[in-house]
Amino acid sequence: MRVRLAAGVALLSLACSLISLPAAPTAAPPPALATLGLPTPIPTLVPTPPPQALPPTPIVDWSDVQLQREALLDAFAADASNFPLATRYWIEAVVDFDPLESQAVIVGRQRLRFTNPLERPLEDLVLMLWPNDDQYAAEMQAGPALIDGHVVMPEPEPQGVGLRFRLPAALPPGEALDLTIPFHIIASGPIRPDTPRRFGIDEGMLLAPTFYPLVPRLTPEGEWQVLAAPPGGDTTNSDIALYDVHLTVPDGLAVAATGREVERQAGGDGTLIVRFASGPTRDFAFALGRFVSAEAQAGDVLVRAWVLEEHAAAAEDTARVAARAVEAFGQLIGPYPFDELDVVDAPGAFGGIEYPGLVFIGVVGEGWDDIVVVHEVAHQWFYALIGNDQLLEPWLDEAAASYAESLYFEAIGDPRTATGLLDEDRAILRSTGGTDTPIGLPVSEYGTEAEYGVYVYLKGALFFEALRNRLGQERFQTFLQIYFTQHRYGFATAASFQSTAEATCSCDLENLFDLWVYQGGELPLP
Length: 526
Ligand SMILES: [Zn+2]
Known about the structure:
The protein is α+β, with helices and mostly antiparallel strands.
């Protein structure tokens, strides 16, 4: 994510309860909720009409990953089979949206297979309804769920954006559960640059990231990551999963989404059913609207820019810059394994926001939009491929993506801009003060959104520069590549970042990390 930051020198745009039903027969498909004569569901988070019935469980063959393979480049097609414990999503959603109206309604159902990765039985499962968070202009409901043949009512999480399901039976280690859940979203709008949101109606487009009940990250210690997101920071924490998403959308509107479009057919009544599949990815987002699009290739990766008509002149440049960034980071850090990346013009979506395989750019046509495009593309490496806790250790992806802006300009033969960006970071940091503030705090521990931006993004970029100076250019690049290889599709922590760096240089970096990341202290700022 990139926030718009005003800081001294210049306006810098950075960017449940289990209902004991009569035992559902396990051999036969479970009956729909309405036929069970249950009271109308559900404990509500928002006063919108809940789904009226539990829809029938869709038939899914979880052993088939052919479509997911298609969303990967040939060299990485095996990645679709390499994570048998990864959550599988099958999602079907009908999107009722007229660009001239300021509301959209999404009605869907989701079936998922979740495997217990812990070495002990799991008693509960959490699903996040992120569109209810303040950063999203929407209201979402979901539930009840059908879990292995039992209807289970959710308990709202204390902080409001999660539902906790007590499992009908504890899930043994390595065993999978099967869950089907209906969901319903009302998107409100419009959202605008001065009232940015992640989700909503933006200039006649529908922005719909994380529009389904998301399984949050389950830490190795067995804790569900259900923290609410502070303002200004990113929201989701989730592990990689494989997606199969069927969107019914109005015919005539373009749809950009995570992953690859694998099927398209008429849906009747002026609708299209568009199916997307993804390789191993931690979230799924789509946007719907009247876009002008342009394409560029980054090796075998297809990069598509989707822009508003008034920004049509910027479409080709946007695609070209994003493709150059994919090439540069592929060489510097490690290969982008997916066959497609979408870059979507979204003026009300902050400076820019990253999702796997799809980024929103809030500043298309504003003259410095290439920096934001590069920043959000860099998040495909730092966040999407190398995961991290975006709430507790945001520097791992934000400082890295900010520094990657300079790496990009070096890579394309423009070292002046690369250096200029870092000089600007120093100037803003000096004028803001508090140069001894560590970059490694959780989002919630910075005083303001602007301070979060200055210390985590700008000082964070300068930390990467300091690390590079300490390691030397060659070892720094080796570090980036080893860090990528070790954490690709996984989760990094500050500790694993540090130990990878130390292993690369066979040196002790404790003082450097204490000074910049953990404790802070007075810095020599050239
Ligand atoms: Zn960012």
